[in-house]
Write a structure and sequence with these properties.
mainly beta, nine-stranded antiparallel beta sheet
Length: 211
């Protein structure tokens, strides 16, 4: 694509820096912390009506990443990852310089159990905070907090597992875009959120053999 179009806008320059630290506070606790900065000479924005991306000017982002790994006991493990990003369009006026769908807060983590008897399992979370759906933040792409549960039993090469996704059966929206549309009985087109519904409570059982 870059060679065919022969344009720097297709593959813009980027400049970034990061600084991090890793510390093993105890023999069973590991912490990672990193701060970062990123500058793009050209930001690309998805256009839902045409299913393409288009250049929209320079952008700047900064943020941090925090991770923790903790073996609380021999059979219990805790992990968590939290990320924050602040992004804005450089050349746009204040209040109209949001980056559509750019996440601010994201995270994942949970508890994991591993026993010598073969039983195990995990309870994990997925986090995505609200974020702007358009440049002036007049539309919001709603975030979510979901829990997933796994229970498994391993004996020799065999493993049986029971998985529950969206344990709390929360209503959430997966893909979200600000799109202008008009129903047949509406006098004018309206810009609003079009979305793909997230999956509801979902139960899955599995049996596997490892060789």
């Amino acid at each position: 694509v870059v060679v065919a179009q022969k344009g720097e806008q297709v593959l813009p320059r980027s400049y970034g820096a990061d600084l991090g630290i890793q510390s093993k506070l105890t023999p069973r606790l590991l912490i990672d912390l990193a701060a970062w900065w990123l500058r793009l000479e050209q930001e690309f924005v998805y256009v839902g009506d045409e299913a393409v991306v288009e250049p929209s000017g320079r952008s700047a982002r900064s943020g941090f990443d925090l991770s923790a790994r903790w073996q609380l006991w021999e059979w219990l493990f805790i992990d968590s990852d939290l990320h924050f990003s602040f992004g804005r369009a450089v050349d746009e006026p204040e209040g109209e310089n949001h980056l559509p769908l750019a996440p601010a807060w994201t995270g994942s983590g949970g508890l994991r159990i591993e026993t010598r008897s073969g039983w195990g399992g995990s309870l994990r979370y997925r986090l995505l905070a609200d974020r702007p759906a358009n440049e002036d933040y007049s539309l919001t792409a709603e975030g979510y907090f979901l829990l997933d549960l796994l229970v498994n039993y391993r004996r020799g090469p065999w493993e049986a597992a029971l998985t529950v996704q969206n344990l709390l059966d929360r209503s959430w929206e997966e893909a979200q875009f600000a799109t202008t549309s008009r129903l047949f009985d509406e006098p004018e087109a309206i810009e609003e959120i079009h979305f793909t519904p997230g999956h509801p409570f979902f139960l899955k059982a599995g049996l596997s053999y490892t060789f």
